[in-house]
């Protein structure tokens, strides 16, 4: 939809009106046949049609182009009233700068920033409303440190609030202790499994060393027996030699 033509000061050229909504062009696009439309209007039209609403020539979204520069300049120079005119704003500015003005306009209706408050109020009166809003928050005057809503003043009990917070902290601490306990048990189990595995490996290595040592002792005994046999043979040979 375009800008309401009733907001504009002075004459508005027919070529600057949307061919669909007949208001002043907003975010305009132009068809090859040179008819201009608001972007939202022509996109909505082409959902159900495939031609220009003015001369019925075939058009497609891909054929739409930005407005000619001279037409865009003429459009931007148009003067119009702020949309908050009904609330008291008397500002008249160019179409090019109207959005910037309306974002900052003191007469704009904006929501209260307090959670839970549904009031819409003029920007210029917001500070005054926040000072008396029943949903405004402040720190407890009794020193408990809690932030309370004005609507809860009569129900606020410092002792009860602090007791509740203490219980929450206690529950949280218990949960953290349990988590730490489970984590430590998990680590101990992991280390225990690792130690058992290492012990098994070492035991196997010890058994292997014992087996090797047993084989070596057997070899030594065999060598010693062979040496004794060899010595006896030498002695026998020496005796035979002397006899000869």
Structural write-up:
- The protein is mainly alpha-helical and 244 residues long.
- Among the domains are: 100 residues, Zinc/RING finger domain, C3HC4 (zinc finger) (Herpes Virus-1, 2-Layer Sandwich), CATH 3.30.40; 40 residues, no CATH class.
- It has five helices and nine strands, in the order ββαβαββαββαββα.
- The strands form four sheets. A three-stranded antiparallel β-sheet has the order 2-1-3. Strands 4-5 form a two-stranded antiparallel ribbon. It has a two-stranded antiparallel sheet with strand order 6-7.
- β6 and β7 form a beta hairpin.
- The longest helix is centred in the last third of the chain and has 86 residues.
- The chain starts with 27 loop residues before the first strand and ends with a helix.
- The mean pLDDT is 87.
Keywords:
single chain; 244 residues; mainly alpha; Herpes Virus-1; three-stranded antiparallel β-sheet; two-stranded antiparallel ribbon; 5 helices; 9 strands; 11% strand
Short structural summary:
The chain is mostly helical and 244 residues long. The chain has five helices and nine strands, in the order ββαβαββαββαββα.
CATH class of the domain at 5-104: Alpha Beta
**Would you tell me the structural class of the helices and strands?**
mainly alpha
**Do you know the CATH topology of the domain at 5-104?**
Herpes Virus-1
Strand content: 5-15%
What's the pLDDT, averaged over the residues? 87
The shape, in one word, is elongated
From the N-terminal CA to the C-terminal CA, the straight-line distance is 141 Å
Q: How large is the count of helical segments?
A: 5
Secondary-structure element sequence? EEHEHEEHEEHEEH
* Rg: 48 Å
**CATH superfamily descriptor of the domain at 5-104:** Zinc/RING finger domain, C3HC4 (zinc finger)
Helix content: 40-55%
Q: Spans of 5+ residues with little confidence (pLDDT < 50)?
A: none
Biggest β-sheet: strands ordered side by side in the sheet: 2-1-3
Architecture of the domain at 5-104, CATH level 2? 2-Layer Sandwich
**Quaternary structure annotation:** single chain
- Give the tally of β-strands: 9
Domain TRAF-type: 101-144
InterPro entries: Znf_RING (IPR001841), Znf_RING/FYVE/PHD (IPR013083), Znf_RING_CS (IPR017907), Znf_TRAF (IPR001293)
GO biological process, one term: regulation of canonical NF-kappaB signal transduction
Protein name: RNF41 ligase
